[in-house]
Amino acid sequence: MTSRLAAITLNTFREAIRDRVLYNLILFVLLLVASAPLFGAISIDIERLVLVNLSLTSISLFGVIIAIFIGTGLVSKEIEKKTLYTILSRPVRRWEFILGKYFGLLLTLVVNTGLMTLGFYAALLITTHKLTPADARLLVAVYFIILQFLIVTAITLLFSSFSTPIFSAVFSFALFVIGTFAEDLRSFAAMTPGPAGWLATVAGYAVPNFASLNVISQVAHDQPVSGSLIAFNTLYALLYSAAVTAGAVLIFERRNLK
Amino acid sequence: MNRSATTVAAVLMVTLFVGSIFALRKVESLRGKEASLEEILYLPSGKVLKRLSLGYSGLLANIYWTRAVQYFGSKRKERATRYDLLAPLLDITTDLDPKLIVAYETGSIFLSQKVPEGAGQPEKAVALVEKGIRENPDNWRLYFTLGFIHYLDRKDFKSAQQAFQKGSEVPGAHPWMKVMAARMAEQGNTTAVALELWNAIYQANKDQMLRETALKHIVSLRATLEMEELSRRIEAYRQKTGVLPSAWGDLVRAGLLRSVPRDPTGSPYRLMTNGVVGVEDPGKFPFLAENTQLK
Fold first, then answer.
1. ipTM of the complex
2. Average pLDDT over chain A, rounded to an integer
3. Which residues of A touch B (CB under 8 A)?
4. Strands annotated E in A54-171
5. pLDDT tens track for A40-52
């Protein structure tokens, strides 16, 4: 089982690389390294702040876009090219296929994020001329971004297990946007009495919570992130993404592929 | 189709999802402690946000208005003494949507009310309503709100009169605005005028928090009016008999009252030995002391 899962994971990763996904890194590095000296010219004392905000936001958005665009095609492409039948005719279970795709895309995103983070620290070094212990705190934000990818990847895979790539992309992106407002939704629910309030509460917990996974502004201002928040955010991201992936498996297991 | 895999997936999905809700609730309570951080991290400019909203500024304004209401509600619940973010949030909301009348009307009353009922910033409230009037000169209700704040929170009767007067000149304005302008000029600071203004606020607003505040004012003002009347009758009794009444029954027997007087919450008024009238539970009349400044 493990070897089959690993094979699908690595193939998904290789396919993403072959799709020239990592080209975005060039764009990212160009954006940062080329614009870093500009920050010094157009702002006073906030070069580091702008660089941190711009870099971490780009890492997050590039990752989400890659997750959505690759993730939505993961299943449908295999069906379209009829390669899925070859895979499933071998001793590969459907849930192994879905899990393999999930881990493959996640691996792509983690590698991509790792490389972008290296580029980010290089740009930081160029701008501030030295790295301080406070800069290590920025890694918490990067870690939270990876937790976001855990959820986004699961969501795109869920939609891609039953819908067309275009609609999956639209649904996933919409859910990502709604998820960034999840806390507003729950506050709204807390203030609304009656059935509308219950509905808002259900919706507030059903949609993914991306707001608490975004600590970019916080770390940019050198504010600490508590260990328990890191622990519970990790737990939340793991549980939520696992639940959504289980949903994707459920749909895919019942899907008629004839 | 693999039945056992389907069942396992379904059970896992439900269990993990329920688990994620518990984890999220814990995250929320942890973030609650760190929420003060967010107070510094809000975007300070509505104009920048408007450009970033790619034309969807109406929706963003609604979100910011909801945030302002939530911020005010949560601060008031914890009896906070500082409402630092309220004015910037309202400013951002009205920058994003200058036609959002409710943000000027209700928001300015949130701002102008004394702490802890409100932010205690009547000057910022006036600035907000004046911004609303600049953007919506045809809305007479904003003039009413402006006059209301000048009158009750700033005690600036001249500005209040001017606001009511200008508002009454707007086409479609309620005729009552002219009456209010005249009252300001004639009487200035009286309990009856204050009561009339709070009644108008209570009837015209749907916001629950604002209506609760208005109701507390109305109840306190009514009690003030009734206590003034009772004091007059006690004085009449003293002049008639030469002594102060020891109980309400004395006034009833003297034909000065029909029965034991009750306050707006239904409890009987207290009659002190020195002839002063009080309420049974002052906690139910939070603005009673404030009303003693009124004529």
1. 0.79
2. 85
3. 93-95, 181, 183-184, 186-188, 191, 205, 209, 212, 217-218, 221, 223, 226, 228-229, 232-233, 235-236, 239-240, 242-244, 246-247, 249-250, 253-254
4. none
5. 565 555 677 778 8
